[in-house]
Amino acid sequence: METLNLTPKQLHILTRVNDIRLAYGYSPTMQELADELGVSKVTVFEHVEALIRKGALIRDPNKARSLTVSDEVELPDNRTTKIPLVGSIAAGKPIDAVEEREYLDLEGMFFPTRRRKPVKTFALRVKGDSMIEEQIRNGDYVICEQTDTARNGQTVVALIDNEEATLKKFYKERGKIRLQPANKKYDPIYVKDCQIQGVVIGVVRSC
After folding, report:
1. Is the pLDDT at 9 greater than 90, yes or no?
2. Per-residue pLDDT tens for 69-99?
3. I want to staple 51 with a disulfide (CB 3.0 to 4.6 A). Which of 57, 111, 138, 194 is the partner?
4. How many CA atoms lie within 13 A of 114 on its CB side?
5. Domain limits, the chain
6. Does domain 82-204 have CATH number 2.10.109.10?
7. Catalytic residues
């Protein structure tokens, strides 16, 4: 990948062109870029022409919204779809949740069609079959929103005794908490208290 000497505004334009093309399939207009940067359309046009001369942007003069980022350009990777993969989670017996320096890149699996307000998320690889009736299988990835609270019936990442993590449905009952598997072969886990680390918001099947 080629490293170019770009001004902050040129880098911003390059990044926005890339992001909008990924999200919507077409590039922003000069006016849209000017409005976002708070500069004139002429100024944006000058920056775009400079990026084209440097080989960072490619434009089809016969098509509207045709700006694309060159494959030879490496952009800073600040995508919200690149989620930290922080370890494995038991869907059978509880196991230690160990942090791993890996990422689960959802953008590599599918392109977003619309944007939503970002939340703090993480991913875990599932081990075990205790959540099979919720269609969460061994080897799947669960996408979790980081939170320390949960509602009854939500599937949660729960830390028991500050050392054992498990993936179960959460139910707060009188004087205790029930961590319910979704597999008739397994009994529920009853605890006086547990630490909620996240709530499952999605499942990615890797097969």
Report:
1. no
2. 888 777 765 555 566 666 677 777 665 555 5
3. 57
4. 2
5. 8-69, 82-204
6. yes
7. 130, 168
